[in-house]
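We emphasize that the prediction below concerns an isolated chain of 376 residues; any contacts that depend on oligomerization or on bound cofactors are therefore not represented. The input was used exactly as deposited, without trimming of termini.
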Amino acid sequence: MEENSLVFKYLHGRKKLDICKRKFLHYYDLILIEIEQDKINENYEDVQKKLDIIQSLICLDEFFIKLSENNKFENLFKKSQSDFLKIPEQTYKIILDAISKQDFILISFKLSSMEIFAKSKFIFHIKTSLENILESIIKDTKNYANSLNENIRYEQNKENLRKYIENHNRIQTILQQTKILNFIDKNIRILLENLFGEIEKILMKKFFNILQSIENFFNQNNFLFIEKTMEYLIDLLKELNDYYKFESIQDDIIQLKTRISQLPNEILQKYDFTDLNKYVNESPKDVCEQLKLVSSNGYSKYTQIYRQIIEKLRKNFSSEINYGKNITSFNRSMKLTIIRDASYYLPDELQNIFRNDIEEISQILRKEVYMPDYFY
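Result of the prediction step, given as a token string:
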């Protein structure tokens, strides 16, 4: 039209051409901004649609002969398409980095943007890497649960519990990521979904073993380990309370806690130490040593029990010694022998108190000849 100047002039061609050019440039700028925004938001389907639009508008470049090269749709298409083709590799690198850091929320988010590149060569590598890390987490989580030792002296218990809880939280996060669950192999997904049930069975077995060990400590008069092991069990249950309830052992725990709270009275009732013949099997020395040990480790409720038993032993043994020395019957030697032998099972502080008496009894026994009852 510019070649036919009169027609161009009377039709206001310049004005109309400028209006079209402004619209052209405005749309160019608009679609450029939209593409960049779509890339930021990872709306890659929209990017692809806009690329198709830009490609169809390349023909308009010829309409504006004096248009700058930077404002031509052909150049915009080439650049945008080139950038678009780089996205799968960029996303692939981001996902691999997220897998190495176990950032499963980011992985899930990026997998959404990978769907448009379903035929990309990177998909297989991502799937393999992700499945490998998930299998490793499943294995480690089971190992941490299995490694929780019933022995409270096992130094790794706290560390293994911490690692288990970290992995438990990771798996909870994974199970919330539908994109990941739909992306990975079905068998791995099933392992993830069933894992907490397996772990609960493992932990229940551990807790039953701990409860049994506490019962064994009762039989051994190991008062310190009774207290420490119960505290360990309560701490474990407290740490895991957000994940499991373990309702089937709650009654057993309540009963044990009640018994432990009443243990000082149980000790007093069980051990009166009046029968010296029982000292061999129920050594007062062993019981008192256990009471001293548990008291020295901060369980002050046993201190008074220790003192009461010591006083009870002192009075009883003193009475037995006086009786043994003063009787004149034929079985005095037998009685004194029982007293002497029982003295070996007294706590050290009482052995010191009765040392002279025991030595005197030993001298008496050396002078006397023991005659069995059937000789009389």
